[in-house]
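Practice problem: predict the structure.
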Amino acid sequence: MSDHTPPRRALVLAPAGTATADAVITRLKSAGYSVDAPAVLTEPTGPIDAFVYDAGLLDGTPTRNAAEQLLTLVVQLTPFLRTPEEGGSRVVVIASRDGLGWPSRPDLAAQSGALVSAARSLALQLGRTGTTVNVIAALPPEGSLLREAGNPENTHLYEPEALTPEPVTVHDIAETAAFFLDPRSGYITGQVLHCCGGASLLSSLSV
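Answer:
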């Protein structure tokens, strides 16, 4: 007998149109998701299994009031999220390691901190509904203009670098999103996972 189970449906929204979101879309399609990636949110035509929100912080082109927009989007999507009996839905927010503090990007740091706070509050709000909400706080990936920032003006600090042998890539971030979206990760919610090759260990300092 053939398997007629419909594919899981994912919505990826990146108003800034980022390379990170493109990598997430490719990764989810490889995992068998049916992915919708509109430029702006339109009402879904059916249940949503996964929602990924990338506000553009890693590319230096952040969506204005990203945390407020996240809250608005989730309210709009709530009627389309899976029930606990259906296995619930997964929400992943892509933020920045800058939320720990960085002198040359206080605006991005503030937006990242606000996104983390909003996501953790949504995790508390939606926990009983079966929906998980988690955050990826990443370094600007290889190829991003932010990676070339160098020495912030009037400081002794340098752009945080991964402690691992290889730099963080958009594919690393996409794999982290896939981890949070996997049904086997359904008991993880309200968490912030730093996809930064250890740079978060340096807090707001650098070596």
